[in-house]
From TrEMBL:
Name under which the protein is recorded: Heme NO-binding domain-containing protein
Upper classification of the organism: Bacteria, Pseudomonadati, Pseudomonadota, Alphaproteobacteria, Sphingomonadales
Sequence ranges assigned to domain Heme NO-binding in this UniProt record: 2-159
Signal peptide: none
InterPro entries per record: H-NOX_domain_sf, Heme_NO-bd, NO_sig/Golgi_transp_ligand-bd
PANTHER family listed in its UniProt record: GUANYLATE CYCLASE SOLUBLE SUBUNIT BETA-2, SOLUBLE GUANYLATE CYCLASE GCY-32-RELATED
One example GO MF annotation: heme binding
Amino acid sequence: MKGLVFTTFFGFCEARHGADMLEDVIESANLPHGGAYTSVGTYPFEEMVALITAAVQATGSTMPAMLEEFGAYCFASWVKKFPHLFDGKDLFDVLAGIDGFHETEVRKLYPDAELPSFVVVARDADCLVLHYASCKPLADLAVGVIRGAADYLGASVEIGYRQERDAVRFEIRRARNLLAA
């Protein structure tokens, strides 16, 4: 896993819970190198799991809630770096373009990154269906990214998902459908 994910997680922990809690999380995770990460380095996924688990224990949160909150924070960090890719855009266009974002912005900085894939399965004005495939079990983080995007873009949506064979199927419905149902 790229170090950028670790450094972003540290920023998330510190922003949400303070520097002291971040230090406690790093210490509790019992990392082999004391939590020193560079954004361009590559590190074992198990170390991220240890950090998230320690943060869950320190906050009394749940793993899905922590991952969702972190996913929303990740989206906000993308907006800070690349506002032109998101400002004034439609939520469905942004979500349908995540793979393109990965290829144009992330790959050029991290050519060896193991990136998740978001493939549009179906789309109409009120519903977007995506298949999310990743070598890491982070569907809850993807939910957070979707919620973060919806919040940032002012879109009221309902997000449903279920595990399928080799992917997670996300169904994102605009709120106007929810009121009509």
